[in-house]
C-alpha cells in the first residue's frame, strides 16, 4: 500500500479560498489528490474538513484560487450515516441502483444494471441483503451499501465523509480493511476523520486541516505534538506503540493520560 | 343490497355529480401520487402554503377577468413558490417562516379582495372547502391534462426525482441536476393544486397531499409500491368522499379529507406500533435514533 503521491494528479486545489456566503472556511489551501493515494483529512469540528471534501467534489466552488480536475474524472461520494433518512422507503437494491441516474430513462432496471448491482453487492459481501429495507442493516452493512452505491459509478476517486463516525470498533476495523482493499485495487481515496488513533494512524497519508493546511505527510511525520497543537488547539502527547503513534490527552496536573478517541 | 346499489347509482343520473365524481377521483389520485414526493421531502407545509398563496391569485385574477382566474391563480402560485425559495436562500430566514409570511399574506389579500368585490367565478365557500357543483368539462380536462403531465414527468425523471428526494447532495455529485428536478416538482405541485382546488378547496388540499402518502408508507417499505398505493388510496378517498358529500350535503373537500382521515385511523389501528415507526421522522435526515431500530420483520419481496 502506498501513499506517496507520485501517481497522476486527479484533483488540485491551488491557493483556494472556499466558504459560505462570503465568509471563508478554507484559507489559501493548496492540495493535490494523486491517483495512488489513500488520504485522511484530519482536523477538529468546524475546521473545514467537509468543506474541503465538497470542494474536491465540485459542489462548492472557491471564491478565490483554482480547482483543477483530471479530464473525465469519475468521482463518487459516501455521505455520513447520520445525514441519511433511514425511514425512507427503499430497499438496499433500490438504493445502490440510484447512482445510475443517467442513460436509461425507464424507472425499472435493465438486465445489465441488475447484474451490475448484484456484482457490486457481492463484492462487498452484502448480496444476500439486496431486498431488505435500508434500516434493517447494521452500521457496517449500511456503510458497505453506500460504498457499493459509489462503486457502481466505477469511480477513480472515492470520497468519504467521516466513514467511522458513530460506528463501533469492529465496524471501524471492517471499514478500514475494506478501504485498504479498494485502494490496493487501484482506487484513490480521500476521507475525513476526527479519530486519530482508530483511523488516522492506520492510513498511509494524512493532511491536517484547521482552516488551512497545517501539515501533510505520513502518520509518523504528521502525528506530532506541535502539529496536533496547531491543528486542534490543545496540547496532546504522542506515544509510540508497535511502531505506530498513539495520541493521549495531556493533563496540566500531570494526572494519568487519557487516550483520545 | 338493492338499496345500496340504488344509492350508488342514483346520483350518477345527475350530470353535475358525474363530473364531480370524475374530478374528485382524479384529484385524489393526482394529489396522492405527488404527495409521496412531497411528504418524503418534508414539503407538506409548502403544499399547504402554496394552496393558500394560489387563493390570493385566484381572487385577484377574478377582478380582471372571470375566465382567466385559473391562469392568474397559477402564475401567482408559481410566483409565491419562487418567492419562498428566494427568501429562504438569500435572507437566512427558515423556509417555514418564509412560507408563513408570503403565503398567509397572499391568502389574506385574497380574502380581502373577495369580501370587498365579491366573486364572479366559484363562490367563496367552494374556493375554501371545495364544491361538487358547477364543475365544467374544462375543469375535468384540466385535471386530466395535469395528471397526464405529472405521470409523464415522473416516468421520465423517475430516477432523478427519487435520488434527489432521498439524497440531494450525492445526487448532485452523481450528475443529477437537483435544482432543475426540484423546480420540476414545484411546477407539477403548483399545477396539481391549481387543478384540484375547486373540488377539494384551498384549505383542504394539503391534507390530500399528506394522508394517502402517509397511509401508503405505513403499508409498505418499497418506494415503487408506495407510489402506486398512495395513488389508489387518494383516488378511493376522492370517490368515497364525493358520495359522502352528496348525501351529507356538505362541501366535497371536507368529506374527501374526512374519508382520508378515517382511512388513516383504520390503518394506524391495524398496523399499530410498526406502522407508526415507519412514518416516524418520514422526512428526517438527522434521525440518529432510527439507526437503532432493527427489530422489524423482513418485508416481503417486491
Would you kindly provide a written description of the structure presented here, covering whatever features stand out?
- The complex is a heterodimer of chains A (261) and B (302).
- Chain A is of the alpha/beta class and 261 residues long.
- Chain A has two domains: 1-73 and 156-219, P-loop containing nucleotide triphosphate hydrolases (Rossmann fold), CATH 3.40.50.300; 86-153, no CATH class.
- Chain A contains seven helices and twelve strands.
- In chain A, α3 crosses α4 and α4 runs parallel beside α5 (169-184).
- The longest helix of chain A has 16 residues, at 169-184.
- The two termini of chain A are 25 Å apart.
- By secondary structure, chain B is mainly alpha-helical.
- Chain B is globular, with a radius of gyration of 20 Å.
- Chain B has helices spanning 2-9, 15-40, 44-64, 69-90, 95-117, 124-129, 137-156, 158-166, 168-173, 178-200, 205-219, 223-248, 252-279.
- Classes of the chains: A alpha/beta (261), B mainly alpha (302).
- The interface between A and B is large, with 41 and 46 residues.
Number of separate domains of chain B? 1
What is the number of beta strands of chain A?
Answer: 12
Task: Report the mean per-residue pLDDT of chain B as an integer.
Answer: 80
Give the CA-CA distance, first to last residue of chain B. Answer: 37 Å
Spatial strand sequence of the major β-sheet of chain A: 5-6-7-3-8-9
Major β-sheet profile of chain A:
6 strands, mixed
Secondary structure tally, helices of chain B = 13
Level-1 CATH class name of the largest domain in chain A: Alpha Beta
Mind telling me the CATH class of chain B?
Mainly Alpha
In short:
The complex is a heterodimer of chains A (261) and B (302). Chain A is of the alpha/beta class and 261 residues long. Chain A contains 7 helices and 12 strands.
Observed structural traits:
heterodimer, A: about 260 residues, alpha/beta, Rossmann fold, 2 domains, six-stranded mixed sheet, three-stranded antiparallel sheet, 12 strands, globular, B: about 300 residues, mainly alpha, ABC transporter involved in vitamin B12 uptake, BtuC, 13 helices, about 75% helix
Amino acid at each position: 500500500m502506498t501513499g506517496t503521491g507520485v501517481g497522476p494528479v486527479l484533483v488540485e486545489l491551488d491557493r483556494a479560498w472556499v466558504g459560505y456566503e462570503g465568509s471563508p472556511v478554507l484559507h489559501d489551501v493548496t492540495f493535490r489528490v494523486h491517483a495512488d493515494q489513500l488520504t485522511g483529512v484530519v482536523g477538529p469540528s468546524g475546521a473545514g474538513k467537509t468543506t474541503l471534501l465538497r470542494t474536491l467534489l465540485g459542489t462548492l466552488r472557491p471564491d478565490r484560487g483554482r480547482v483543477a480536475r483530471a479530464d473525465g474524472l469519475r468521482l463518487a461520494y459516501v455521505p455520513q450515516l447520520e445525514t441519511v433518512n433511514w425511514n425512507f422507503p427503499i430497499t438496499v437494491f433500490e438504493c445502490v441502483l440510484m447512482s445510475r441516474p443517467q442513460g436509461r430513462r425507464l424507472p425499472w432496471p435493465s438486465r445489465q444494471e441488475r447484474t451490475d448491482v448484484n456484482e457490486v453487492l457481492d463484492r462487498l459481501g452484502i448480496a444476500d441483503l439486496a431486498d431488505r429495507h435500508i434500516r434493517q442493516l447494521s452500521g457496517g452493512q449500511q456503510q458497505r451499501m453506500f460504498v457499493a452505491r459509489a462503486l457502481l459509478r466505477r469511480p477513480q476517486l472515492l470520497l468519504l465523509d467521516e466513514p467511522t463516525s458513530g460506528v463501533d470498533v469492529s465496524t471501524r476495523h471492517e471499514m478500514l480493511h475494506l478501504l485498504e482493499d479498494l485502494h490496493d485495487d487501484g482506487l484513490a481515496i480521500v476521507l475525513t476523520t476526527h479519530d486519530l488513533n482508530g483511523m488516522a494512524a492506520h492510513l498511509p497519508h494524512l493532511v491536517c486541516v484547521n482552516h488551512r493546511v497545517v501539515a501533510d505527510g505520513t502518520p509518523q511525520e504528521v502525528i506530532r505534538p506541535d502539529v496536533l497543537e496547531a491543528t486542534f488547539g490543545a496540547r496532546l502527547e504522542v506515544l509510540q506503540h508497535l511502531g505506530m503513534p498513539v495520541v493521549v490527552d495531556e493533563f496540566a496536573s500531570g494526572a494519568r493520560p487519557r487516550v483520545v478517541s | 343490497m338493492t338499496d345500496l346499489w340504488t344509492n350508488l347509482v342514483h346520483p350518477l343520473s345527475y350530470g353535475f355529480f358525474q363530473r364531480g365524481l370524475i374530478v374528485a377521483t382524479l384529484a385524489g389520485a393526482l394529489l396522492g401520487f405527488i404527495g409521496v414526493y412531497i411528504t418524503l421531502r418534508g414539503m407538506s407545509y409548502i403544499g399547504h402554503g402554496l394552496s393558500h398563496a394560489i387563493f390570493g391569485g385566484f381572487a385577484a385574477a377574478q377582478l380582471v377577468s372571470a375566465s382567466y382566474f385559473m391562469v392568474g391563480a397559477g402564475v401567482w402560485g408559481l410566483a409565491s413558490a419562487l418567492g419562498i425559495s428566494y427568501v429562504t436562500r438569500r435572507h437566512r430566514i427558515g423556509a417555514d417562516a418564509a412560507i408563513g409570511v408570503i403565503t398567509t399574506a397572499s391568502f389574506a389579500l385574497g380574502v380581502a379582495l373577495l369580501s370587498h368585490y365579491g366573486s364572479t367565478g366559484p363562490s367563496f365557500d367552494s374556493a375554501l372547502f371545495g364544491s361538487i357543483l358547477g364543475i365544467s368539462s374544462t375543469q375535468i380536462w384540466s385535471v386530466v391534462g395535469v395528471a397526464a403531465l405529472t405521470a409523464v414527468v415522473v416516468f421520465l425523471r423517475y430516477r432523478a426525482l427519487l435520488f434527489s428526494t432521498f439524497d440531494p447532495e450525492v445526487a448532485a455529485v452523481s450528475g443529477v441536476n437537483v435544482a432543475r428536478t426540484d423546480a420540476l416538482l414545484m411546477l407539477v405541485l403548483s399545477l396539481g393544486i391549481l387543478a384540484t382546488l375547486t373540488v377539494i378547496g384551498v384549505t383542504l388540499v394539503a391534507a390530500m397531499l399528506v394522508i394517502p402518502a402517509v397511509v401508503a408508507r405505513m403499508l409498505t417499505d418499497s418506494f415503487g409500491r408506495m407510489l402506486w398505493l398512495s395513488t389508489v388510496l387518494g383516488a378511493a378517498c376522492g370517490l368515497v368522499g364525493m358520495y359522502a358529500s352528496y348525501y351529507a350535503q356538505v362541501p366535497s373537500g371536507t368529506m374527501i379529507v374526512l374519508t382520508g382521515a378515517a382511512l388513516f385511523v383504520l390503518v394506524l389501528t391495524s398496523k399499530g406500533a410498526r406502522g407508526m415507526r415507519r412514518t416516524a421522522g418520514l422526512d428526517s435526515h438527522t434521525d440518529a435514533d432510527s439507526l437503532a431500530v432493527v427489530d422489524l420483520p423482513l418485508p416481503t419481496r417486491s
